[in-house]
Specification:
This protein is mostly beta strands. Helices cover 15% and strands 49% of the residues. Strands 5-2-1-7 form a four-stranded mixed beta sheet.
Length: 149
């Protein structure tokens, strides 16, 4: 440390360099992203039946899903649950991104203020923990509607 100080390095700089080297950041190592199932509420649009919800789902769980389904709750402008339904996303291959659309009859999109993911009702596939779909879920939204768990 006296050598570092004589070269004009402060103790803070030496400590920071040591921490970077210890964590691998100084060598440019990247950490592997944690397995996840990303579920994006992409759009809510009026349809002939009622309201069409469009989702973009990406399976990064490191294994294919034979079936994934989620129970969702729709809240109205009074922040009261207006409807609970199950959306079946079917099979989701590993590393694949898919778009899924669901038409909800007798639902006015303009009155939906929040979509809550209540639970994963189905989550199955070889090597998949049945709770992985809910525990490793990463909900995001591109709409103005609040979305998540």
């Amino acid at each position: 440390m006296k050598f570092a100080a004589s070269l004009g390095f402060s103790m803070t700089a030496v400590t920071a360099i040591s921490l970077l080297a210890a964590t691998g950041l100084a060598s440019g190592e990247e950490s592997t992203p944690a397995p996840a199932l990303t579920l994006e509420l992409n759009a809510l649009q009026p349809s002939e039946k009622g309201c069409r919800l469009t989702f973009v789902v990406s399976n990064k769980l490191k294994a294919p899903l034979d079936k994934a389904a989620f129970e969702i709750a729709l809240f109205n402008e009074a922040n009261v649950v207006d409807r609970i339904t199950v959306l079946d996303f079917k099979d989701l291959p590993e590393g694949k991104t898919k778009v899924r659309r669901f038409d909800l009859g007798d639902t006015d999109c303009a009155k939906v203020t929040r979509v809550l993911i209540n639970d994963a009702t189905e989550c199955s596939g070889a090597g998949i923990d049945p709770k992985a779909c809910i525990r490793q879920l990463k909900p995001i939204t591109k709409s103005s509607v609040q979305f998540g768990s």
